[in-house]
């Protein structure tokens, strides 16, 4: 019985992501990224809806020459999306990893109050400024960052 429930739940999650079932939802984030006190430009920022089987991309952008970015992510899901934002950067990255395009990666999750059940976000998660030097919890290197 338990395995049947897991299969049904998995099907709902997959069909939700693949077939576009669910409600349109948005999340917005903005801020400035720095590397050792200087603007971190061209940092890739991607927003995903964290799901059980695989994550669905909601949006993508890069920081500008002053380290600023702003992004609105959009997704469809039956339940409230679990918005995860990934940052891919080379601040204090070793020369070998930089040459082979393996940026450092860390993620943050947006609090539920920043998820809007509409096509326009009601609130923007503004973290103002973040320093990329140093290490973040659960940080990794990601050569593919799909």
TrEMBL record:
<dbReference type="InterPro" id="IPR001534">
    <property type="entry name" value="Transthyretin-like"/>
</dbReference>
<keyword id="KW-0964">Secreted</keyword>
<dbReference type="InterPro" id="IPR038479">
    <property type="entry name" value="Transthyretin-like_sf"/>
</dbReference>
<dbReference type="Pfam" id="PF01060">
    <property type="entry name" value="TTR-52"/>
</dbReference>
<keyword id="KW-0732">Signal</keyword>
<feature type="signal peptide">
    <location>
        <begin position="1"/>
        <end position="17"/>
    </location>
</feature>
<comment type="similarity">
    <text>Belongs to the nematode transthyretin-like family.</text>
</comment>
<dbReference type="GO" id="GO:0005576">
    <property type="term" value="C:extracellular region"/>
</dbReference>
<dbReference type="GO" id="GO:0009986">
    <property type="term" value="C:cell surface"/>
</dbReference>
<protein>
    <recommendedName>
        <fullName>Transthyretin-like family protein</fullName>
    </recommendedName>
</protein>
């Amino acid at each position: 019985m338990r395995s049947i429930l897991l299969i049904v739940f998995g099907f709902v999650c997959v069909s939700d992501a693949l077939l576009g079932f669910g409600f349109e939802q948005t999340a917005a984030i903005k801020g400035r990224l720095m590397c050792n006190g200087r603007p971190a430009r061209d940092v890739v920022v991607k927003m995903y809806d964290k799901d059980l089987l695989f994550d669905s991309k909601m949006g993508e952008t890069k920081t500008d020459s002053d380290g600023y970015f702003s992004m609105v992510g959009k997704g469809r899901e039956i339940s409230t999306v679990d918005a995860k934002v990934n940052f891919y950067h080379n601040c204090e990255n070793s020369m070998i990893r930089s040459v082979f395009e393996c940026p450092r990666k860390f993620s943050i999750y947006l609090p539920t109050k920043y998820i809007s059940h509409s096509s326009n976000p009601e609130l923007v998660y503004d973290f103002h400024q973040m320093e990329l030097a140093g290490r973040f919890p659960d940080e990794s290197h990601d050569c593919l960052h799909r």
